[in-house]
Structures are given as structure tokens and as C-alpha cells.
């Protein structure tokens, strides 16, 4: 239950949930790609990405000037899918 609580606390924002869902469908995406797909400003997006990386939810690597993010903690997908299937939401 502690891990579930950690995941819920770390992803408790619509933008963060959207990031997780987007990265669950691909290996990795650049900040620019994520920003374009979610229609979120890069500065705000970078704040969310760095926080989730710091908590171990995401990983990143640099290719030239671009930083690519990937989902590191795959259990996050299960928690979000479980909540999405709740009938009271």
C-alpha cells in the first residue's frame, strides 16, 4: 500500500497522469514531443518531468540538445488504469 500511496502522491495532477499515459505507449519522447502532444508549455512540463524523475517514476537521457524521458516505474500504469476503471469517477 505504501508504493501505491507513493505513486498516487507523485502523479496527483492531470498533466502528470497525461505524461505517464503518453510515455506508457512509447519507449521515450523528447520534451518538445511531449509538449506538442499534450499542448503544455515546455517550462511547466519540465517542472512536472523533473519532479517525477527525481521521485524515480521517469528516467531521462540526453541526445544532443534534446532530453528524452521514459517511464521507469511501470507499476504506475497499473495504478492509473485501475483508478480509471472505477465506476464512481
From TrEMBL:
Residues 1-89 form the HTH arsR-type domain. The keyword Transcription applies. Transmembrane segments: none annotated. Keywords: DNA-binding, Transcription, Transcription regulation. Pfam families: HTH_5 (PF01022). The keyword Membrane does not apply. PANTHER family: ARSENICAL RESISTANCE OPERON REPRESSOR ARSR-RELATED. This is Metalloregulator ArsR/SmtB family transcription factor.
